[in-house]
What we know:
The complex is a heterodimer of chains A (189) and B (426). With 189 residues, chain A is an alpha+beta fold. Helix content of chain A is 27%, strand content 19%. Chain A folds into 2 domains: 2-37; 43-176, no CATH class. Chain A is built from 4 helices and 7 strands, in the order H-E-E-H-E-E-E-H-E-H-E. In chain A, strands 2-7 form a two-stranded antiparallel ribbon. Chain A has a two-stranded antiparallel sheet with strand order 3-6. In chain A, strand 4 and strand 5 form a beta hairpin. The termini of chain A are far apart. Chain B is globular. Chain B has a two-stranded antiparallel sheet. Chain B has 426 residues and is mainly α. Chain B is 64% helix and 1% strand. Chain B starts with a helix and ends with a helix. Chain B has 2 domains: 52-253 and 404-425, no CATH class; 285-392, no CATH class. Chain B contains 19 helices and 3 strands. At the A-B interface, helix 1, strand 1 and strand 5 of A face helix 1, helix 4, strand 1, helix 5 and helix 17 of B.
Amino acid sequence: MKDAGNKYESRREFVRKAGMALAIAPLIALPLVLAKKTTGKGYVWQIDPYKCTTCGNCKTSCVLTPSASKCVHAHVLCGYCDLCGGYLKEGAKSISTGAEVQMCPTNAIERKFVEEPFFEYMINENLCDGCAKCVKGCKDFGNGSLYMQIKQDLCVNCNDCAIARNCPSNAVSRVPSDYQYVIKDRAQG
Amino acid sequence: MRKRLLPYILLLILVLWHVVLFAQERFPRPEFESGYVYPEQHLPEGRSQVWEYIDVAVLIIALSVTSWLAIKKRSRQGIVWMSVFSLAYFGFFREGCICAVGSVQNVALALFNEGYTIPLTALLFFIIPLVFALLFGRVFCAGVCPLGAVQELTGIKPVKLPHAVEAIMAAVPFIYLAIAVLFAAMESQFIICRYDPFVGFFRLDAPFTMIVFGILLIIAGIFINRPYCRYFCPYGVLLNIFSRFSGKHLTITPAECINCRLCENDACPYDAILPSNHDQVKENPAESRKIFLRYVLMLPVFTLAGALLLYNTAPFLAGIHRDVKLAKEIRVEKETGVEALSLAAKAFKESGQTEDELFASEKAVIARFRKASPWIGIFLGLSLGAALVSMTTKRRRTEYLPHKGKCYSCGRCFRYCPVEVKSQVK
């Protein structure tokens, strides 16, 4: 009886060892296969402003509320106009800082007089919710100096970015973490 | 003649003007006289890369401690505290990304695509728990996985499910894994991450539907312990397979099993205790061998059936890819005249990509799916066949043992064992 027990034991032990060897093989093979395709540096998600269609999905798709994607301003591209397509609603009755004429629903754009006839526009990041309305206005009627970027200090860097999934123009993609922003320094086109 | 051409010339000018408008800054950069300096763009860097390596270190330490607690120390209390720690660190502090469960997809994406190089940390998160599973069983599930920890800590009133339900639901993770790997390898989506029910709790923010799903799972999990781990977790499939061949594994009893049957009924909420059967009547060996052979011969049939089934569903599965989705919409627009109104269709029309390019891309994606999906069919067919084969064999056991594949090494069974209790009283 005892011998029979031993026989079973050794057979099971053999199966276990064979299985272990079979399981170890892919574990060793995997790093070898991927040796050339592994990077010590990670990725972050970022918006390519030249592909962005300002649809506003960034605001609603992000797993965070408010979204980690916000408007940033490339001042070097800005025309510093008095009549700003990003600041004022289309058909605004007056050029002022009144809430009724502002494009931004959260009053996140601060308008400041610089010198005749120029006005500076700054984004208050704490108020911006990433709706991209101003970006659309600036793209349609201005230089396109306002653009969307994912703020990396807010982004939780999901393995599968929900904004990327919902972006209609495929503008959101993984970028190496060395280049966390796609900075806009030239006009559209 | 000239009159007829005029509209076209006008149109040409208009189009050209549009291009010019687009290519240049419409308003020239102002020349300031007051010494104005451009403000800096506020573009803060993300969390330092170092954190990800700290995560790997914490992962290894946590796995080692849990292995020690499960196998050497045999402390359920300790494993619970490890769950609390992992929930706090990997869950609430690191907010759930990256986790071993999702890393399956990074590996699949890296294996089958040229453009993607996998971050080392993702690769390590994939491999290390598997190595530990091979050494010590599913200790990752026991006390390290934050998703497992949520459910382990909330499963307070275990109820046993019928064997049939258990057996059927056990197939779901295999299908989930297969589909997730396919979608990741085809650069379509990371569905494991998208349908992660608990990551929303860690971030205190998620889509409404996922929060509802998560809450329902937790409520169900009070009675049906670890519902996600048992019936959904795709990484659990791999751990299950690897753990079956583990060198060391948690045991129910610290010494020799006295076949007291006390652990038989309520000790394991996961149905992972294999009862001793040395006193049962032996089956006719010739008969059981025949049944066994019959099912082994069925293996190729299942494999082929799986491959065929998945080959034929490939175009349907390809619908998850954005190009295929868009191409479908554009084609409907062409054929029926109903304007494609989705944002993607609008963006496509603005982008200047031609329809032929899109349709070519659609065709390529479907062809890739056709090529890849039979393989996951083979995997599914083989798994089903192997499960049936294993049902035909009866193992002789002289003691109560944990099912190495199903056991989460949670240690709930320790206190049911009188040998254990006796040793502790001493």
